[in-house]
Amino acid sequence: MDYFKSLITSYQEMNNIPTNTVRIVKLNDSQFVHISRLFARDNYFQGFDLLQAINNYISQVNGPIYHMQVVYRDDGHGQYLEKIYLEFSLADYEQLNVALKQVLEPTQY
Predict the structure, then answer these.
(1) According to the model, what pLDDT value does residue 66 have?
(2) Strand 30-36 to 67-74 pairing
(3) Is the residue at 85 inside a domain?
(4) Can you count the helices (H) and strands (E) in the chain?
(5) Total count of domains within the chain
(6) Could you give the maximum distance between any two Cα atoms of the chain, in Å?
(7) Angle CA(77)–CA(67)–CA(79) in degrees, nearest 5?
(8) Strand partners, 81
(9) Residue 72 belongs to domain spanning
(10) pTM of the prediction?
(11) What is the pLDDT of residues 24-80, one digit of tens each?
């Protein structure tokens, strides 16, 4: 189970953010979290709040560091943030999910 993706999807649903704004895909030796369509002038705060929630999920379990790339677009009225990519190594992404599982499903004794 992808606990990280489940947390992100739950956050989106609780905050009325379309779930098609985040994709998580594997490419070669990396796992990418692709955030898009959330940074227009009228709703950019949703994108930044989502990014903050993602960072909080990672930091709560002392998760791995990721590489972030931002893509800007000029719509004729100035530049705006179009997409954010978060790149994890496959091992780091798996480590993050293991740590999240331990928090979300603690072993019962």
Answers:
(1) 96
(2) unpaired
(3) yes
(4) 3, 4
(5) 1
(6) 61
(7) 5
(8) 72
(9) 3-98
(10) 0.89
(11) 999 999 999 999 988 877 778 899 999 999 999 999 999 999 999 999 988 888 888
